Structure formats: structure tokens, C-alpha cells
């Protein structure tokens, strides 16, 4: 979809213009259009590409540093989520901001993993968290303690037998789930 802001952005990328007009970012829809244009038209990234490559450097390289700073407080994820609401969770990106993980976010991520990503016959192991970009959460909030993570996420009504049966968890006998 061509609009005035994407035309200006194209001119900036091609070197015809050196910067965006004053107050461009006071209209947040301009930031949304530029982010969409960058991802869909310039980079042509898939979700897997976004997960691996999206970071602040990309916005700087493609002349959107001012937008990222002004509108999104230097958060590539916030820019992406504004342009593509709900498409990815922040923890799906290769790196999360420093001090990102809290117990509440960790619990949300565990629910997301178990309820949206894994099937009933999938095995749940410590390396499963890494596979889904949650190793930082796992190390920070529940230092490699799968049982503790599951109890925190499902404090009421989670039984060891139910979890082990559903996800074929391989834990030591003394672990409590």
C-alpha cells in the first residue's frame, strides 16, 4: 500500500532525501507504515527471519533510528508489534531487553509454550525452552528447574502425573511437579 510516508521513506532509502520531515513521528501511524514497509517490502522477512534478525541495528541501518527512539523507546519489538499486532511474542526474538524477565512474564511464556506451541505428545525438557526462545527466562527465573517453572505456571490443579503423561517429561524421581 503506497501512501505519502512510504513514498518519503523510499526517497530516504534511495538517498533522494536525507531525513524525514519535522514531526513525522508525532503521527504514530507513520511509524507503523514505515515498519510494515521495512519488514514486508524492503527486507521481505519471514517470521523466522524476524525472530533471528530483528534488532535495533536493523532500524539504524534502514534509516529508522529516530523513529525507533522517538516512538518506541528504542524497542524493536514494540515497533514490530505496533505494525503487526500479536504476530509474535517478545521472547520469540533472538534477544530480549536486559531485565525483561519477571515471574509474571515467565508464567505467561510457559502458558504460551504449553498451550499454544506444544502438542500432547511432545516431550517437555529443559532444551524445549531453548528451542522456543525461552532459555533466558528459564535461566533467570527458574534456574534450570523444570518442576519449579511448571508449579509457578500452574499452582492450582497441576499434578505431577498429568504433566508427565501429557508432555512425556523425563525428570528425576525426586523432582516435584
TrEMBL record:
- Which InterPro entries does this UniProt record tie to the protein? DUF4046 (IPR025119)
The DUF4046 domain extends over 5-86
> What is the protein named?
DUF4046 domain-containing protein
